[in-house]
Amino acid sequence: MNSFALRAARVLTFTLAALAVSPAMATQVQFETRFGKFIVELYDEEAPITVANFLEYIESGAYENSIIHRKVDGFVIQGGGHTWTVEDTFERIETRDPIANESGISNTRGTISMARSSDPDSATSQWFINLRDNSEALDGERTGDDAGYAVFGEVIGNGMDVVDTLGSIQDFYLSTVFTEIPLFNYATGEDRSAENYLFTEVTVFTNEPLPMVLNSGLNGAWRERGDGGEGFYLEVLPQRGGATLGWYTWDTELPGMDAEAVIGDPGHRWLTGLAPAGSFTGGDSVTLDVYNARGGRFVDYGAGIDSNEKVGTMTMTFDSCESGTVDFDLDAFGESGSISISRTANDNVALCEALVEAAADAE
Hints:
Layout lengths: L2 H16 L9 E6 L2 E7 L5 H12 L6 E7 L3 E9 L5 E3 L18 E4 L12 E4 L4 H4 L12 E5 L3 H8 L4 E3 L6 E3 L18 E5 L14 E5 L5 E8 L4 E8 L20 E6 L9 E13 L2 E19 L4 E8 L4 E9 L5 H14 L1
Antiparallel strand pairs: 1-2, 1-11, 2-8, 3-4, 4-5, 4-7, 6-7, 6-8, 9-10, 12-13, 12-19, 13-14, 14-15, 15-16, 16-17, 17-18, 18-19
């Protein structure tokens, strides 16, 4: 078997070995506020009734225009009970039947629980987030009249930075359905508007990756995954809609000074890939013509090239800023196959991800 076939077989073996059934991901919901977004990961297995109830309110649109109507300093923020109207009035969220209490998980800082009356099985739409460890005050018993408040998720990542900011907003007395309510950038006696209230838009967070697009953050060195020797140095030119590439292998012996780039030989150096200007205008892949450049000198770019023979084509497809696939068809050598690639260094990953996000925002 030739060297390219062996490499392709190794890549296929590596790819198949890496396949596994991933465990189900916990449901996540996103809270969007004037101070930023935060994600809550729900306890689907531990509190299935409560999670299902909460998701039903989200999916029905009940939480649209809803506000944080209660805050106790250093204790909790609470929402899910009322919406605001342009007439500066409040409407109660239409509730469904109350649910069975699923207490048992501790009300530690950052957890989200269901608000309710003194009846453990009275929770409907209202929720609260613990600003501190409230386990001593709110956990109670697992069942009965002294049952605790049902925790059904937790704020993840840096989300508590946003929650803490919401919990720091000053309360004001209103002669409405609320005794006190947190209001932003407000002074007693002033007219109120939407800008003063703490809205929380709640949506199910899919965490789907943004569509990958070719960008200059992909530039740099890439290598074959596993123990193969293929390597690529890519230069994406977004302004021109083109790209150039050097395809090389790691030599297993020192080639002679007169060695040519003969594919598959131990002394094989490189092939050249070129996607002319205008070859791509978006998307996650680029197709390049592949050339076998004979001769040439490192110290004098382009000098001494004896020939520049097209030997086939290759397509590079990127599934993320850190991994991709090379599919090649080199007719001149009778070689074709697929190579899984990853970065040699991660210097440009942050730039690549920022450009992907910018492209998604521009759509």
